[in-house]
Amino acid sequence: MYKLLIIGFLSILLFSCEKPVEYSPVPQITFSELSLLDTVEAELDNPIKRVKVQFDFIDGDGDLGLSKADTFGDFGPGKKYYYNLTFSVFEKKNDKWILNEKTKPYFRFQNISKQSTSNKVLKGYMSVDVDFLKNIGFADTIRLDFFIYDRALHKSNVASTPEIYLYE
């Protein structure tokens, strides 16, 4: 009976230990939420439409974000990877999406890596405000496509917002 109990306990212990889920080291993002706000920019007092974009992310090796010191090499000012979050603005004209070549919002978000854990996977969400000056030549309807880079220079998939009505 004692041996059977030990074998049962060891079986439970052996089969209850599941391998952790492994994720790709290439970040994956998914659009999750959008909100709009009419407000005024702080510096020049111009009326703006603030588009708050929220998205979920997952990164298998947990190397998302840049520190303030990451300004050399590939991460230097003017380099391709200086900004790690990039938006493209598409305007709807005659029922077709046209890339606005003049407006390309870029952002640089801080290092959010886990420091003291063996599981490097990062899962979470991020919220970003993208501001548009009111009455400055945008179509009524836009869409934002966006992606992120990690520190290993992996580019995520491209996610898109639904249609955004700037001027209702």
Which properties best describe this structure?
168 residues, Immunoglobulin-like, 6-stranded antiparallel sheet, 3-stranded antiparallel sheet, 1 helix
Brief summary:
The protein is built from one helix and nine strands.
Please describe the biggest sheet, giving its number of strands, its sense, and whether it closes into a barrel: 6 strands, antiparallel
User: How many separate domains?
Assistant: 1
CATH architecture group name: Sandwich
Structural class: mainly beta
Order of helices and strands: HEEEEEEEEE
List the quaternary state of the chains. single chain
Helix content, binned percent: under 10%
Number of DSSP strands?
A: 9
Radius of gyration: 22 Å
- Low-confidence sequence ranges: none
Proportion in β-strands:
35-45%
CATH uppermost class: Mainly Beta
Helical run tally: 1
Mean residue pLDDT: 88
| Amino-to-carboxy terminus distance | 77 Å
Explain this structure to me?
The chain has 168 residues and is mostly beta strands. Helix content is 9%, strand content 39%. It has one helix and nine strands; from the N terminus they run H-E-E-E-E-E-E-E-E-E. The chain has one helix at residues 2-16, and strands spanning 28-40, 47-59, 85-93, 96-99, 106-107, 122-133, 141-148, 159-160, 164-165. Strands 3, 4, 5, 7, 8 and 9 form a six-stranded antiparallel sheet that branches. It starts with a helix and ends with a strand.
